[in-house]
Amino acid sequence: MSPESLVVFLLILGVLVAFHEFGHFIAAKLSGMRVEEFAFGFGPRLLRLFKRRDTEYTVHAFPLGGFVKITGMEPGEEHIPDGFQAQSLWKRALVIFAGPLFSFILAVLLFQLIGVVWGFHDGSKTLNKVLMVSPRTVAARIGLRAGDEILKINDRRVTDGSQMIDIIHASPGKEVTLLVKRDSREFTLSAVPRWSIDYLGANWSFMQGDRAEVKTVPEESTAAKAGVKAKDVLLTFNGKPIIGGQAFDEAIRQNGTNEATLVLTRDGLRVTVRATPSIRTVDLAGVRWYFPGAFAGDLLDKKGSRIKLGDRLLEVNGRKVTSGERLLDAVRATERVALKIERHNVEKPIRLSVAPGKVDSAISESMGLVGFTPQFAGLEQLEADTHLHVHKENNRLFGLVDELEAALPSAEAAVTR
Asked: Domain-by-domain residue ranges, the chain?
């Protein structure tokens, strides 16, 4: 940890602990208890700031928060009238509870302060910069770092995070060339995005190898109902071994909407599940709606769209949307569609009348992933001061982990010899 990081850490810890102890202090005073000392820091006392009534306000050597010394805290001191042990149970409980309560209040105040000073980022707007690199991914292996700016992908200039991510998502298994700017230096890196496939409502990831590992299984998904669980690894699909994302993607397309038989490994045991896929996505009104849930996950027509990412589709033409199949039935042979939408932070549902545009559907979705998170728009300065530095430190740590993992086989061989 650098000296700057250490200073920031101590300051943050000091504020958190001091405010926590201030809660104990206020509650003790209001309950009629005598507080002998309110201290900033721990260890030997450096100086006494002042004394008011019975309380000394002091500074100690180690700036790691502080403490409150309340009279009569020790067992056997019940005889002290204004001591802690002499008070009723509810007063003692109030004093103990006040510390965590003030910690919660501080969190709320800081959250509001961030909103007033910096504002909250719009998660739908990202920059063509790297916020974080996940360890043991393609991005980590090729040397991407937090703060890197992606100028071009395959000689195509990128100007924002959405454009950058769209190109990578559309290139699973295909090599892409990145023109990267780091500080004042420009250089190229090559990467092959790993496959990530949404099928049966679960996410099947090839980030760590050629076998699909289940990352997420929503409770109401077809996969969950069939018995698929997170961390399951796919062996075969309809009797065919699946090695690599392209093989899985092709097998899904060939099977279509027919029942599929999947053989998985779970905790060293083989598990067989059978499931009939349902519609995963529906393209309607320039938006890709994801099921289950009917959420707006991609804006296909980003210009002038009245729909926002995260909107949930409740009704179409007066019919409730409970599945992709129901949505397709509701929009057949219509020139206009009436949408009823639920939007976060909007109390009442929003009603829109829009042209359906090109209507399409799919039972799965495949994308390429490299393993980094783009930087959010609107947080450039804040991130430059805090998060970016933390993630750079993390990148160095991840690099050490990768080096240690690479050295382990050699070390083990040396021991066996």
From this structure: 3-117, 126-193+370-411, 194-275, 281-362
> What is the end-to-end Cα distance of the chain in Å, rounded?
37
Sign (positive or negative) of CA dihedral 237, 240, 243, 245: negative
What CA–CA distance (Å, rounded) separates 124 from 119?
A: 15
| CATH of span 194-275 | 2.30.42.10
Read off the pTM: 0.60
User: Which tens digits make up the pLDDT trace of 327-378?
Assistant: 998 888 678 888 899 988 777 788 888 787 788 999 999 999 999 989 877 6
Which pLDDT does position 330 carry in this prediction?
87
Encoded amino acid at 179, one letter: L
Residues 6 or more apart in contact with residue 272 via CB below 8 angstroms: 261, 262, 263, 264
Do the first three CATH levels of 194-275 and 281-362 match, i.e. the same topology? yes
Q: How far is CA 78 from the centre of its chain?
A: 50
Class level of CATH domain 281-362: mainly beta
What six digits make up the tokens of 242?
């699946």
Active centre residues (catalytic): 21
- Choose among 193, 143, 224, 147: nearest CA to 402: 143
| CA angle in degrees (0–180, nearest 5) for 231-233-235 | 170
Q: Does domain 126-193+370-411 have CATH number 2.30.42.10?
A: yes
User: For the segment 18-37, what is each residue's pLDDT rounded down to a tens digit?
Assistant: 889 888 999 998 888 999 99
